[in-house]
Amino acid sequence: MKLISKMYDHLHWANMRILDSLKTLEDQSHPAKQLFSHILLAEEVWFNRIKGLSSSAKGLWTELSLDECLKLSKTNHQNFKELLSVLTAANEEDTIIYKNSTGKEFRTTLADILTHVALHGQYHRGQINRLLRQEQHEPINVDYITYVR
User: Fold this and answer.
1) For a designed S-S bond to 53, which of 25, 48, 97, 108 qualifies (C-beta 3.0 to 4.6 A apart)?
2) Residue 50 in this model has a pLDDT that exceeds 70
C-alpha cells in the first residue's frame, strides 16, 4: 500500500500542475478542460464505488469549470488520502462489487481499482499534453520521476 499511496500523491501533484496550466489558456472552453474534468470525475466515481456509494448519476464527460476542478481535485485527494491511510496489505485483495455506467455489475479487487485510477489519470494527462503541444503550448511535465526528484 506504500507504493499505491505514493502513486496517489503523484496523481494529486500532476493534477495540480495540469490545472495550473489550464488556467493560463485564453480559451477557457479548451478540449483539454473536458479531459481534465473527466479525470477528476472518474476519480470521484471510483472512490464512491469503493465506498459502496452510488455512482450512477455521475456524468463522466461533464465539463467542469476550473474552480469546480480545483474543488473536486482537493476533495478527491483528501478522500483517497483518508482511504489509503487505513488500508493494509490484507485489504488489497478485498473484492469491490459495483456497477459501471451502463448498469452492468463487476467484481474487482481493491488493489486493481486503485491501480487503475492512478494509471487512468496519467493516460488522460498525456492526451492533455498532446492537445497543448498541437496548439504550440508547452506540455506540462507530469512524469513520476520528476515528482519523486
Assistant:
1) 48
2) yes
Radius of gyration over every alpha carbon of the chain, rounded to an integer in angstroms: 16
Cell triple for 51: 465506498
Confidence band, pLDDT 50/70/90 cuts, at residue 57: low
pTM: 0.94
Superfamily holding 2-148? dinb family like domain (1.20.120.450)
| Amino acid in the structure at residue 118 | A
User: How long, in residues, is the chain?
Assistant: 149
User: Domain-by-domain residue ranges, the chain?
Assistant: 2-148
**Residue 3: exposure state from Cβ atoms within 10 A (0-12, 13-18, ≥19):** exposed
